[in-house]
Design a protein that fits this description.
The protein has a domain of about 80 residues: hypothetical protein PF0899 fold (2-Layer Sandwich), CATH 3.30.2320.50. It is about 25% helix and about 35% strand. Helix 1 crosses helix 2. It is elongated, with a radius of gyration of 18 Å. It binds zinc ion. Zinc ion binds next to loops.
């Protein structure tokens, strides 16, 4: 279950950034996660909520996930197609593709915080 270690990394990163921003509360964290990372988002959310419940700064923070499908590009058909189980083979012409269009993303997009001073988040 690698979701727990991923959730821990996210919590650590968010906590560091929140401290830098002098946040008093983290209200939400938005992630972009590609399908190719094989992350079970329900499991990640569960781990995130468990870890944040132990941190006063992050307690009750919502985890928002933008899920990006795994897609590849076929040069032969000049079209995009979904990668099935890591097999990037075009369903139309059966050509193999080396061009992954999306699905490998993993980033913290944004976080919403309350700060002691009324600066913009
Ligand atoms: Zn094709």
């Amino acid at each position: 279950m690698h979701e727990l270690s991923i959730a821990q990394s996210i919590v650590d990163a968010v906590e560091t950034r929140a401290s830098e921003c002098q946040a008093t509360k983290v209200k939400s964290v938005r992630l972009r996660i590609g399908e190719a990372n094989c992350i079970v988002t329900d499991s990640l959310t569960f781990c995130f909520e468990m870890l944040t419940s132990l941190e006063p700064l992050l307690s009750g923070a919502h985890l928002l996930i933008d899920f990006v499908p795994h897609q590849a590009w076929c040069d032969h058909c000049a079209s995009e197609f979904p990668v099935q189980n890591f097999v990037a083979q075009c369903p139309t012409c059966a050509e193999w593709s080396n061009t992954i269009v999306s699905g490998t993303e993993f980033q913290i997009l944004e976080m919403e915080i309350d700060a002691a001073t009324n600066v913009a988040t």
